[in-house]
Write a structure and sequence with these properties.
single chain, six-stranded mixed sheet, 4 domains, Beta-Lactamase, D-Maltodextrin-Binding Protein, domain 2, alpha+beta, 25 strands, six-stranded antiparallel sheet
C-alpha cells in the first residue's frame, strides 16, 4: 500500500488576524487542487512552536522569517525567498512622527515600539544596526515594547505611545517606505517619516523540509513560484505572505518547468482578424496544443485553439466583430478526468483586429465556492451581525440585523445598538472582544458580543435576543447603558 501523502504547511503566527486565517484557508484549497494531495495550513501559535516543528521535522513546509530561513537552510530540501519589488532582499527603516523628528544620535530616553523579538525588520535588524553604530538599545531607550504587528507598532508611534519603530522596505529610500506605511496605516502615512536605514538582508521565505517526498517537493515549489504568474487568478493568495511571488535560492526566475507533461495552457494571448485568422499568439510555454506559437501565425483560429475551445471562442469572436463590441465567455474543456474551466475575453482594436485573452480559471472558480461558503455564515445566521466605523456609521449588517433593527442605517450613531458599541470603543475596561451587559431596545433584551479582530479599524458585533432568559429586574435600557460613565 502506498504511503499516505499530505502536506502540513506551518506559517508565522498570524497574531489573531481573521483575514490571515481566511487567506490561509483559501490558499490551502488552491494548493490541494493544484497538487492533488491534501494541504493543511497551520498558523503557529508562537515562534517557539514554529522552531520546534522545524527542529523536530514534523511539518513538510514552513513560512518563516529571514532569520529562520538562514538558520534552517542547510537542513532544508529547498528554500523559496519572497520577492518584493523584484528583489529577494530588503532593509529595515527607522520611523518616527513627522512633527517630532529624531535621529540615531538622539534616541536617549525615547520609547521604542517593536513588532516581535522574532521579526527581522521589526526588531532584529534595527537593533543590530544600533549596536553596529555603538548604540545599546537597552541603555538608550526608556522602554521597548512588542506590539505584535507592524500596524500596531506604527499606530503606537502615531498615537504618542512610542517615539520610534521600524518597518521593512525593499530599497533604502523614502518612496519605498511610503508604500509600506500607506499599506499599514492608510492616509496617516504622511504623519510618519523614515530617518535611518539598515543594511540589506535576504527576505523571509518558505522552507521545504525533507519530510516532503522529492517529486511532491518539485510540484509544491512549482505551484508556489507560479502562483501569481500563470494568469489563473491566484495572485491574491500571495497576500498571505505580503509578496509578489517566490524565487528559488534567491534568484528571480520564471516558474520552474513542471515535472509532468502540461496538458493545458493557463494563459493564451492572441491577435485575431474578423475572418477568424490568428495573426499572432503567445503562451507561457511557447506552445499551444503542442505546437510552437511561431507556427500558428496565419492559421485559422479554430485550428489554433483545437476542437474543445474552437466552438465557444470562435462564436465569441464572430459576435464581437459583428456587433463591434468586446465580450467574454466561460467554457468547459479538456478530458473528463481533467476538465478545466476557461474564460475567453476579446477586445476590439482600431485596425480591424482584436486581442483575445484566454485564461484557465478552474482554480479561481473553485475558490469562489470557498468564499461563498465563508460569506454564508453571517448571511444565514439567525442572530444580527453588524459592523460600524469609529463614528458609528454602519459598514455592514446581515439580513437578520436589518430585520430586527430597521433603523440602523437611518439613525446611524444614534441607534441604541450602535451607541452601545461606540461606548465599548470608548471604554478601556470593556475591551474590544467581550460580552456587554444586556441592552433593552423596543421591549426586547439583546446581549451584544464584540468580535472585532485585533487590527480592525471597525467594531464588529453579534447581537443575541435573550429576552426570555433575562429576569425583568436585571434588564437595563439602552439609554441607561449609555448614561453609565465610560
Amino acid at each position: 500500500m502506498a504511503p499516505h501523502r499530505s502536506i502540513r504547511f506551518m506559517t508565522n503566527p498570524a497574531f489573531g488576524e481573521v483575514k490571515e486565517h481566511v487567506r490561509a484557508e483559501l490558499l490551502a484549497v488552491a494548493l490541494t487542487r493544484r497538487l492533488r494531495v491534501p494541504v493543511t495550513i497551520l498558523s503557529a501559535a508562537s515562534q517557539e512552536e514554529l522552531i520546534e516543528a522545524l527542529t523536530g521535522n514534523t511539518v513538510e513546509a514552513a513560512w518563516v522569517t529571514a532569520e529562520l530561513c538562514d538558520r534552517f537552510e542547510k537542513d532544508a530540501r529547498v528554500v523559496l525567498r519572497a520577492v518584493r519589488s523584484g528583489s529577494t532582499v530588503y532593509h529595515a527603516a527607522f520611523v518616527c512622527r513627522a512633527d517630532d523628528p529624531v535621529s540615531l544620535d538622539a534616541l536617549d530616553g525615547l520609547k521604542a515600539a517593536w513588532v516581535t523579538r522574532a521579526s527581522t525588520a521589526g526588531y532584529l535588524l534595527p537593533r543590530a544596526h544600533l549596536k553596529e553604530n555603538g548604540i545599546d538599545p537597552q541603555k538608550v531607550f526608556a522602554s521597548e515594547r512588542e506590539y505584535g504587528s507592524y500596524r500596531r507598532a506604527l499606530t503606537a508611534v502615531l498615537d504618542g505611545e512610542a517615539d520610534v519603530t521600524s518597518v521593512y522596505c525593499t530599497h533604502p529610500d523614502d518612496r519605498a517606505v511610503r508604500a509600506v506605511l500607506a499599506e499599514h496605516v492608510g492616509r496617516r502615512e504622511n504623519e510618519l517619516v523614515p530617518f535611518a536605514f539598515t543594511r540589506s538582508t535576504p527576505s523571509d521565505g518558505v522552507l521545504v523540509t525533507h519530510r516532503m517526498p522529492e517529486d511532491l517537493s518539485d510540484a509544491f515549489v512549482d505551484a508556489l513560484v507560479s502562483l501569481g504568474s500563470t494568469g489563473s487568478g491566484l495572485l491574491p493568495h500571495l497576500g498571505l505572505f505580503d509578496t509578489e511571488g517566490f524565487a528559488v535560492d534567491g534568484h528571480v526566475t520564471p516558474p520552474l518547468p513542471s515535472t509532468s507533461p502540461r496538458t493545458h495552457e493557463p494563459l493564451l494571448m492572441l491577435e485575431v482578424t474578423a475572418d477568424g485568422t490568428c495573426l499572432r499568439a503567445w503562451s507561457p510555454s511557447g506552445k499551444i496544443n503542442g505546437r510552437p506559437v511561431a507556427q500558428l501565425s496565419g492559421r485559422p483560429l479554430a485550428e489554433v485553439l483545437g476542437p474543445d475551445a474552437a466552438s465557444p471562442v470562435c462564436a465569441l469572436a464572430s459576435e464581437s466583430f459583428r456587433n463591434r463590441m468586446g465580450g467574454r465567455i466561460d467554457y468547459h474543456a479538456g478530458p473528463e478526468d481533467d476538465a478545466r474551466w476557461y474564460s475567453a475575453e476579446i477586445t476590439l482594436g482600431a485596425l480591424g483586429t482584436a486581442a483575445l485573452i484566454i485564461r484557465d480559471v478552474t482554480d479561481s472558480r473553485a475558490l469562489e465556492e470557498e468564499l461563498y461558503r465563508l460569506a454564508s455564515y453571517p448571511l444565514l445566521t439567525p442572530d444580527p451581525v453588524l459592523e460600524i466605523d469609529s463614528d458609528g456609521g454602519l459598514i455592514y449588517a446581515n439580513r437578520a440585523a436589518h430585520d430586527r433593527f430597521p433603523g440602523l442605517v437611518a439613525q446611524g450613531a444614534d441607534h441604541p445598538i450602535s451607541s452601545a458599541l461606540l461606548a465599548v470603543q470608548r471604554s478601556p475596561k470593556a475591551g474590544r472582544n467581550s460580552a456587554l451587559r444586556e441592552v433593552e431596545v423596543d421591549g426586547r433584551v439583546w446581549k451584544i458580543t464584540v468580535l472585532s479582530p485585533p487590527d480592525a479599524d471597525y467594531i464588529r458585533a453579534q447581537v443575541t435576543d435573550v429576552t426570555e432568559h433575562t429576569p425583568r429586574s436585571n434588564r437595563i435600557r439602552s439609554t441607561d447603558f449609555l448614561r453609565r460613565p465610560s
